[in-house]
Each structure stands twice: as structure tokens, then as C-alpha cells.
Amino acid sequence: MNEETIQNENSNLAIWNEFKHTDPKFTKAFAKFGKQLTTTDPMYQVRKMTDRFGPVGNLWTYAVNYTYTEKLVFAELKIGWRESKSEAFNWYGPVSTVNPLYQKDRLDDEAPKKAMTDAMTKAFSHLGMAADVFMGMFDNVKYVEAMKEKFSGKVKHTVIKPETKEKPDVK
Q1: 42-53 vs 111-125: helix axis angle to the nearest 10?
Q2: Which of 10, 43, 134, 170 is buried deepest, with most CB atoms within 10 A?
Q3: Torsion angle (degrees, nearest 10) of CA 45, 47, 49, 53
């Protein structure tokens, strides 16, 4: 691989690399299809987008279109992002999800929001958001522990004692 290829790969993955690690505090396990899966808090994802691109509408945005049937609501969502206000938005989507309008024969007034949130999570994943969750890395206990340490704000460092032959302390 030459230097230009490496630079292009690094710039192509810049956003992905910023978003790929997930703070375990903003995940939860759930059972589906007979297995344990992990989900990421949607507001955490919005916070990460806001941290990277500023408030929604600034350097990132989204557009959602709803379609209703007798029993279902479909949300088609696309996300846009850019590096500066002078640029046009880069768009991804639409990503479509569906949610039942009724829960136990009662209208679920949260159904459109649930469908939109699911679509947003899927669209964000294509930028690398929570890639470690989607790639199954949260199935590995050691990986989750490493992420807990990374996001704890505590930095481990070694204190070297040159005046003695003691092993260094790790704090």
C-alpha cells in the first residue's frame, strides 16, 4: 500500500473512526430472535452527531417522511452531513422502518417516533455510529470492559521509579 492509499483510507474512515466506539453506559441488552442483542440509546447517537457536527440543522440534518396504513406507520428517513456551511449536504438514505400503530388494540401515539428513531439509528450506523455494537463486539465481555475503561475518563499510567529496581506502579 502506498502513502496516498493510506491517506485516502484514513480520510475515508475519519467519521467512522470517530463514531465506531460506544460508551457502554448508553447501551442495553435485549432478547430477540432467541439471542441476546445490544441496543444503543438514540439520544446518545444524536449527542454524538451534535458533538461532531454541531446542533441539528447546522452541519447535519435529517428529513423524515411518514406513510400510514390501517395498522402500520412507515418512516423513511435520510440524514445529511457536511464539513462546513458553504458545502452542500451529503445525504444518505432513505432508510425505511415500520412500526405497528396499535398496541393491544389501543392506538400507540409513540408509533411514528419509534419508527423514526429506528430509521435514524440505522442511518447513523452507515456513518459508523455504534459500529462496535452492530459488528457484534459487545458480545465480548473483555471488549465491553475495555470500552468502560475508555469512557470512564480514568487514564491508566505507569509510574517509573528509576532510583529503585522495583516494578513500576500502575495507577
Answers
A1: 50
A2: 134
A3: 180
